[in-house]
Amino acid sequence: MTEVQKKPCPPLVGADIECFLADEETYEPIPCVGLVPGTKECPLPMEGLPKGYALQEDNVMLEFNIPPAKTYTAFTASVSKARSYMYDYINKKRPNTEILFQTDMLFKAKDLTSPQAQLIGCEPDLDAYHGGAVRTIRDNKLGRWRSAGGHIHLGGDFQCPDFVAALFCDVALGLACDLSGIMDNRRAEWYGQPGVFRSKPYGIEYRTPSCTWAGSRKQTQNVGARALGLSKWLTETDARDIQRVFRKIDWAEVRSAMMIDTTMTTNQRRTRRNNILHKARMEGFPV
Fold first, then answer.
1. Taking a C-beta distance cutoff of 8 angstroms, is the pair 53, 82 a contact?
2. Mean pLDDT taken over the chain
3. b/e for 12-24, b at 16 or more Cβ within 10 A?
4. How far is residue 54's CA from residue 70's CA, in Å, rounded to a whole number?
5. Cβ contacts of residue 136 below 8 Å, gap of 6+?
6. Contact partners, residue 98, CB within 8 Å, separation at least 6
7. Is 45 exposed, middle or buried, given 0-12, 13-18 or 19+ CB atoms closer than 10 A?
8. What's the pLDDT tens digit per position in 175-224?
9. Beta bridge partners of residue 210, listed in sequence order
10. HSE toward the beta carbon, residue 77, CA cutoff 13 A
């Protein structure tokens, strides 16, 4: 796989967020195919908003992009502006359409006949728990199910390899922002595994979370604040200190805690999560 050429970048946070369309009355899913003249290669700019705001079709989902932000308040405001624009745009094109921020949705077979509806993933994902190796999906039987991601982009001149930054995302975002429990939905079967990321010239794209955090302003604020705090820590902390913290964290335990363990009660899982975060804080990690 070709190595990504890095460019100087200050600590930033951004996102690309997928969501579902449904009929407002029946909640029947609506494929986005043909509704938005924006693609991965050529997203549709949001008219009247600064560069970086865009809409595009992704499989049968609607996706929106926001520009990178230097503060978590700007990040939260950007998500809110993009959502408002998206609602207005879609309801002018197709009135009485609901936009849903949920992990997955079952479509009718007739809605999945187009080539676009069969296109899954535009470039390979990487696995942080295997040193950044290309992640292989052994049994990608989507059937009529589709999933929606809430990918978080972290910018900065990280003083560590990208796969290490992605592992820290599992702690600072997956656990601390309560984006864990990813195995409790179908999305986890093909995308939402712990430590899934892509290397970018500016930093990394953390691809584990679903889109659900973007449906809540409070959760969006939390994600923005912690993602930006992590970007700053990875950029401004000496590499030896990052390595020291990395070695102190039990990564097998982190990975396991990111998944739903049906043998444990909710309180037991919460205690397990809090213990991991407490130990990370004791080592100087910003969670």
1. yes
2. 92
3. bbbbbbbbbbbee
4. 19
5. none
6. 21, 22, 23, 24, 27
7. middle
8. 999 886 665 566 776 777 899 999 999 999 999 999 999 999 999 999 99
9. 149
10. 9
